[in-house]
């Protein structure tokens, strides 16, 4: 990617919205401090469990989180931003609670974003945010994992969301993927590899084959 500095961050942020008064601003402070220290030109921030376990009760905190993050002094020279937040919590078939945020610094000369619907590149200017039901947003691909992938047949919000960027002539897919945890240590010990490891592998291969 020529000499562009890229910062990749992935974080399960569910607890931030369960205790926003104590955790949210502290998290943002550490994030922008990292930006100040590393001075990246492109940032990909991938978040899982945005809004916590009760999204419908935390939506105001999510908005506050995004506004505080984007409004930080250290972020003002990032003149291009794309924000994708899956907030469609009423749709069990589609909701993933994933959030993808991208920032591009004004020093990046050439940057484009892939349109998955038209299979073509789009120029990127300014800052755009996509909230709520984002199923029809063409510059991202998002999907829950098929029901049969889930251990113990308990269908949850696990899935992935990806974007594709052309940054100064280098094409990169950024994939935010939320895989399965070990729901039971006893079940995990029963076989090797465990049923959870097998399911994670299956979901990862499923995601890679979508590329």
TrEMBL record:
The Inositol polyphosphate-related phosphatase domain, residue ranges: 2-211
Enzyme class, UniProt record, top EC level: hydrolase
Keywords: Hydrolase
InterPro entries reported in the protein's UniProt record: Endo/exonu/phosph_ase_sf, INPP5A, IPPc
BP GO terms, sorted: phosphatidylinositol dephosphorylation
Listed SUPFAM superfamilies: DNase I-like
Molecular-function GO terms, alphabetical: inositol-polyphosphate 5-phosphatase activity
Domain of life: Eukaryota
Annotated EC: 3.1.3.56
Protein family per UniProt: Belongs to the inositol 1,4,5-trisphosphate 5-phosphatase type I family.
Full protein name: inositol-polyphosphate 5-phosphatase
Lineage of the species this protein comes from: Eukaryota, Metazoa, Ecdysozoa, Arthropoda, Hexapoda
Gene from which the chain derives: INPP5A_1
């Amino acid at each position: 990617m020529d000499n562009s500095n890229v910062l990749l961050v992935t974080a399960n942020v569910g607890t931030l919205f369960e205790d926003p008064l104590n955790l949210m601003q502290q998290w943002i402070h550490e994030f922008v401090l990292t930006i100040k220290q590393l001075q990246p030109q492109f940032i990909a921030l991938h978040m899982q469990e945005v809004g916590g376990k009760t999204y419908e009760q935390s939506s105001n905190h999510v908005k506050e989180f995004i506004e505080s993050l984007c409004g930080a002094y250290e972020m003002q020279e990032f003149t291009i931003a794309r924000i994708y937040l899956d907030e469609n919590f009423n749709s069990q078939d589609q909701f993933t609670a994933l959030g993808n945020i991208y920032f591009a610094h004004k020093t990046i000369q050439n940057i484009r974003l892939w349109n998955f619907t038209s299979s073509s590149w789009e120029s990127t200017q300014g800052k755009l945010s996509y909230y709520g039901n984002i199923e029809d947003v063409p510059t991202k691909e998002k999907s829950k994992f098929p029901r049969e992938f889930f251990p113990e047949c308990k269908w949850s919000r696990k899935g992935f969301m990806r974007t594709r960027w052309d940054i100064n002539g280098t094409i990169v897919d950024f994939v935010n993927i939320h895989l399965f945890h070990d729901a039971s240590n006893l079940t995990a010990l029963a076989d090797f590899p465990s049923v959870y490891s097998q399911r994670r592998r299956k979901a990862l291969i499923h995601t890679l084959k979508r590329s």
